[in-house]
């Protein structure tokens, strides 16, 4: 608790109990609520999922008898919130083109009968919405404008929405009304972008820890769907399997949701698929059955996202590499909102990134494409890392963020693995990455590094990683160019498998010894390719290192 902030008085706590059923504010909540009530200050709140953001913007108008306007991107989410508030005897409504009984609602609104009004960003930005907000402020004075999921305003975030871009006009339109931007995930860049684009004036910035200590993080290799998923389930009776609690499986494509859904159904799991291609009714039905525990699992694309109102999701499985760290953290944030231990697993193969990278070509703006490419690389690093995964995610949002669970068995597979270094059983299902290589910290892999870098060099740095690896293991695959058979390096890495070398190459990429270059058109690795390919090449660091190693070999 911040000692410079006076605690809430009895009246305030009584209102908190009466309308929200809570005995205390959480520390950040009171700091924010107070700044609205007493200073009418702008706020930018970055709060981990489950901290209680909605209370921050709902309380001020409930307490003062005013009206808060909440701008939120998802109609179903707003409907749920309105319902929740009504149940708690807090008058609330949703305004928008889909709204029925608008005339009645509008009359009550202008008489100040609603404590909380939800609108979409599209509605807020068009003429009709604008004049409603102006009228409302003139007639009753708006207590606060809250902009939920505010990261959508930023192109640097993971979920940019163009309708959010126009929300900056609200500040000019209603200069005296305090604005509160709230989101669960924002990097420092996104935070700055939010404050700037929304025209916040000297905002109070509040950040709770991003660390969701009850989430265990794990990365596994993708092989066969049933086999992979079974490893996370228990067999209830012969050939029937069950997850340990409500589970969401995210897939990169609709088609993949169908495949995975079928596999799970074949194992007797009560599950349904969810994606943007289904009708609204169907999606609502699936969501509600999941909330009521009639379904154990939803297999979804990321369309199943914001607005999942289920606090006891125990597992989030990404079947296929997630898009980037921010999206990933937002997606796994849906697990364990009740504070109970939950786990998050990714099954992936390096191939998953081919599709992600392919779509980069559609981005026109150079700087933006570069940014997206960096985000993809960061995700790759996350999946391949041998270090603490939690630390890696947290430092993406805040360089100084540390976690007290880091290094313990409840943190992530890498931390747990290190603790279980003595017990190597079960490694076969794990991604063959540095995770296994680094466990023996005694083992020196410099010879292998030299072989690998050399193989890339002598094949002319004009291929992906496949050709250098085939060269190392002495492959007879037709894809290996004829001239390679004569090279001294041919077969020099026979003591390891192709899979091992490929994993090792990923480690070298992580260590910035190898890097990727985009080669377009003809003249790429295989001569007559018309599409662009990624070539594995030596980085400056790798080249220097290799030269030194070769030199000391020469001296020896
Ligand atoms: P967020 O939007 O930040 O994910 P919610 O507003 O949905 O979080 O709140 C998460 C949970 O925390 C809800 O169940 C809510 O009732 C509870 N909560 C919020 N504030 C408090 C509080 N001051 N004391 C106890 N529980 C709270």
Please tally the β strands and state the result. 17
Q: Report how far apart the termini are.
A: 64 Å
> On the 0-100 scale, what is the average pLDDT?
86
Name the poorly predicted regions: 422-442, 521-531
Structure description:
- With 556 residues, the chain is of the alpha/beta class.
- The protein is 42% helix and 15% strand.
- It has 23 helices and 17 strands.
- The strands form 4 sheets. A 7-stranded parallel β-sheet has the order 3-4-2-5-6-1-7, with helices on both faces. The chain has a 6-stranded parallel β-sheet with strand order 8-15-14-11-13-12, sandwiched between helices.
- Strand 3, helix 5 and strand 4 form a beta-alpha-beta unit.
- The longest helix is centred in the last third of the chain and has 19 residues.
- The termini are far apart.
- About 6% of the residues have low confidence.
- The structure holds adenosine-5'-diphosphate.
- This is DNA 3'-5' helicase.
- Belongs to the helicase family. RecQ subfamily.
- It comes from Branchiostoma belcheri.
């Amino acid at each position: 608790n911040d000692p410079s902030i006076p605690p809430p008085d009895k009246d305030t706590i009584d209102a908190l109990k009466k309308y929200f059923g809570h005995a205390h504010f959480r520390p950040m909540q009171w700091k924010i609520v107070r700044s609205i009530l007493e200073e009418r200050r702008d706020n930018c709140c970055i709060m981990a999922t489950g901290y209680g953001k909605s209370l921050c913007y709902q309380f001020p108008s409930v307490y003062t008898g005013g009206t808060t306007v909440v701008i939120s991107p998802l109609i179903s989410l707003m409907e749920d919130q309105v319902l929740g508030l009504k149940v708690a005897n807090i008058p609330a409504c949703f305004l928008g083109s889909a709204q029925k009984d608008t005339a009645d609602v509008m009359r009550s609104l202008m008489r100040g009968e609603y404590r909380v009004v939800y609108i979409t960003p599209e509605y807020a930005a068009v003429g009709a919405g604008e004049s409603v907000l102006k009228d409302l402020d003139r007639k009753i004075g708006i207590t606060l404008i809250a902009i939920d999921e505010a990261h959508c305003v930023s192109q640097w975030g993971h979920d940019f929405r163009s309708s959010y871009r126009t929300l900056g006009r609200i500040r000019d339109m209603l200069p005296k009304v305090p604005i509160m931007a709230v989101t669960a995930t924002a990097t420092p860049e996104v935070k700055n972008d939010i404050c700037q684009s929304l025209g916040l004036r000297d905002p109070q910035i509040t950040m709770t820890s991003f660390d969701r200590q009850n989430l265990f993080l794990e990365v596994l290799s993708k092989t066969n769907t049933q086999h992979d998923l079974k490893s996370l389930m228990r067999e209830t009776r012969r050939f029937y399997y069950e997850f340990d609690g409500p589970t969401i499986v995210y897939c990169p494509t609709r088609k993949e949701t169908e495949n995975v859904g079928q596999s799970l159904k074949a194992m007797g799991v009560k599950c349904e698929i969810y994606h943007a291609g289904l009708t609204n009714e169907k999606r609502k039905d699936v969501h509600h059955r999941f909330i009521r525990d009639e379904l154990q699992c939803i297999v979804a694309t990321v369309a199943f996202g914001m607005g999942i109102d289920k606090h006891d999701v125990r597992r989030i499985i990404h079947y296929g590499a997630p898009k980037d760290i921010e999206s990933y953290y937002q997606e796994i944030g849906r697990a364990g909102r009740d504070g109970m231990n939950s786990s998050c697993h990714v099954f992936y193969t390096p191939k998953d990134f081919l599709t992600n990278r392919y779509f980069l070509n559609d981005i026109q703006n150079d700087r933006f494409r570069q940014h997206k490419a960096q985000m993809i690389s960061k995700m790759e690093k996350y999946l391949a890392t041998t270090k603490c995964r939690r630390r890696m995610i947290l430092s993406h949002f805040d360089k100084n963020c540390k976690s007290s669970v880091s290094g313990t068995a409840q943190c992530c597979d890498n931390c747990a693995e290190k603790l279980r270094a003595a017990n190597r059983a079960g490694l076969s299902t794990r991604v063959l990455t540095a995770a296994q290589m680094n466990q023996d910290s005694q083992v020196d892999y410099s010879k292998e590094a030299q072989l690998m870098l050399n193989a890339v060099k002598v094949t002319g740095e004009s291929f992906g990683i496949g050709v250098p690896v085939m060269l190392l293991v002495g492959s007879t695959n037709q894809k290996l160019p004829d001239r390679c058979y004569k090279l001294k390096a041919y077969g020099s890495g026979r003591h390891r498998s192709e899979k091992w070398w490929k994993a090792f190459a990923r480690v070298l990429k992580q260590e910035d010894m190898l890097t990727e270059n985009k080669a377009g058109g003809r003249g790429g690795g295989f001569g007559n390719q018309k599409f662009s390919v990624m070539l594995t090449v030596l980085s400056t660091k790798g080249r220097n290192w290799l030269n030194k190693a070769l030199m000391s070999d020469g001296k020896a």
